[in-house]
Amino acid sequence: MWKKAVLIVAIALAASLPLFTGSYFLSVFNTIFVFMSLSLTWDMMLRTGQLSYGTAGLFGLGAYTS
Hints:
Structural class: mainly alpha
Number of strands: 0
Shape: flat
Largest sheet: none
Mean pLDDT: 86
Number of helices: 3
Radius of gyration: 16 Å
Low-confidence stretches: none
Order of helices and strands: HHH
């Protein structure tokens, strides 16, 4: 029960974050989460033995075209 309450409070704080912060802070968090998702994907592929540079290539292609 305690963990569920903490999770709900954390989600509520994360959802209200854009209301109280500036655009620079949100841009930094956006960059952090994008790189975090890439590193988690890379880590999962390395642990399963399915090493592929395609994910990093598609990530780079998307970054280049945006």
